[in-house]
Amino acid sequence: MIAATQGHRLMALLSVRDLSVAFETRDGLVRAVNDVTFSLDAGKVLALLGESGSGKSVTLRAILGLHPAVRTRVSGEVLLKGRDVNRLDEAARERLRGGVVSMVFQEPMTALDPVYTIGEQIVETLVQHRGLDRRGASRRARELLDLVQVPSPERCLASYPHEISGGMRQRAMIAIALACDPELLLADEPTTALDVTVQAQILWLLRDLQQRLGLAVIFVTHDLGVAAEIADAAAVMYAGRIVEQAPIRDLFRRPAHPYTEGLMQATVRRGQKGRALVPIPGAPPNLIALPAGCAFAPRCPRAYDACLATLPSFHPVAAGHAARCHLVA
Amino acid sequence: MWAYVGRRLLLAIPTLLGASIIVFAMVHLAPGDPIAAVMPAESSQAEIEATKRAYGFDKPLPVQYLVWLGRVAQGDLGRSIATRRAVILDVRDALANSLVLALSSSLLAFALGVALGLLAAFRQGRALDKLASAIAVVGVSVPHYWAGIILIIIFSVQLNWLPAMGAANEPGVLPYLRHIALPTVALSLIPLGVITRVVRSAALDILSQEFVLALRAKGLAARRVFTHVVKNAAPQILTVLGLQFGFQLGGSVLVEAVFSWPGTGYLLNLAIFQRDIPVLQGVILVLATFFVLLNLAVDLLQTLVDPRIARH
Ligand SMILES: Nc1ncnc2c1ncn2[C@@H]1O[C@H](COP(=O)(O)OP(=O)(O)OP(=O)(O)O)[C@@H](O)[C@H]1O
Ligand code: SF4
Ligand SMILES: [Mg+2]
Looking at chain A, which residue has its C-alpha nearest residue B218? Predict the structure, then answer.
């Protein structure tokens, strides 16, 4: 995958290259995302895995160009349909957001504006991006709620977020994200905050929409079972770096990085859907003072001298499969 | 919604009764014999008793209260001990003058405070934010009567641009504006500081919420995001505006004194120094009623702005 990157970049829908994001805080520079490189073709699903704080959400926000200009350092390239989000002005980014890439959040209750109705929140997006009038936008809003299978769309459109159930809220959030026919959907743990029964429904809705609309999706999850069911490929993040990247089957059959192995052993395989990642002993490193060598070394059962001294680079394991580990070299 | 309005109106009645009792009792608990203060020093005991009877001061307190309340309910606030004019007339004129001053200073403070607060929040950490914070600190920490004196020294004494004292004698809008300008500025400083701070923190609070990120993530233009933030912060902003307006009505005693502006504060001042109890009672009661009604209006406005309050 790494070898193919150069030629591949021209045709990929999304191509992220050496993306780094650091936050200036009182305690020091928090290096939340470090040299992240990957690409995603139209219509494909990438699962983004990794424990809490590994930089998944920060990566998604960087793809949307949402990080504030103050006290945040963003470097590297985020090419969306060949255009670098980091080099665009705010107006051009606004056109990309919603129209080319959009996002579904973990907690729809906090991600929807509490004092606007669902209808208003869908309509305003359509009015701005599509130049529709209110009538046309309302009609399209109704269609969108049908698309995400809301049982009584009229009532939902007139409701404020606190007046409908969590599942309906997440459907409404998805409808907003899909309003302007984006090609790439960023889903940041879209089912984690929901009831278990609703989780499965939302997951299948997303799966179904992805296939019907030919969407590319980056699906952030803590759930390996979910990743196995919906993704084509996976990227595993640790301390702001992608440590392993592979087609989803390869990742499960032959995890190459000790961290990925740890994740597998802790939860285990397909069919065990719904089980969260069981934490590996030890804690992730302080992002303010990242070690010179492999960030996983303190917790790695197979660490040796070289691991502490030098940062492992990506080594190919098989076609499209690579891992950042000295053992793979 | 209407049930909520009804409930809030009913709740206002005991509050008003409580206020009337406090006003009534306060004056009777205060040291100093009000009759002695207005009677000539050489008055005989009989004359003093007669005056007491005439004003009803000889009856038991609860009876005095009920009689007083009954009259108040009909708009009769008694006669001023000092001027013999009906208190209601004095209070009405003073209230009108205070209202105008409260309105002008509030408008100035609202406009500047809301604009500064929002700008500061949207430019958090930058120069404009720091400037707004500095203005807010100065606004709330400088005593307004002192600011009033400084304004008089600069604009009336040194530059001779604006009059220092009283309301306009000659008719016309311009003389009126020239007289009200300095007290307006002096009186707007504190609410300007408070409003700037509250609006800034309310807007920052909303800006830090995830839905703002979500609004931007769907490509909404910055101008529309701004509208969302303002609408979400509106209940908090309205509350502070309402309270500040209330303070403006009651809190202008010193500024009105400095500028000799003939408002309720000036009247209150006069009544205190002259121990003019009916006027004192009248002014305080009218101001208390104003506060209660104002709070009510603010609450009701909030329910109109935020659908969550009334429905739950
Ligand atoms: N604005 C910020 N300022 C400082 N640090 C930040 C900021 N945003 C995120 N971080 C830090 O960056 C790191 C990565 O955060 P991120 O939200 O991307 O983690 P995540 O992988 O999404 O975790 P989770 O699974 O818990 O959502 C965290 O340590 C977080 O504390
Ligand atoms: S580089 Fe060393 S420490 Fe890091 S994962 Fe590989 S073996 Fe473990
Ligand atoms: Mg996250």
Answer: A98
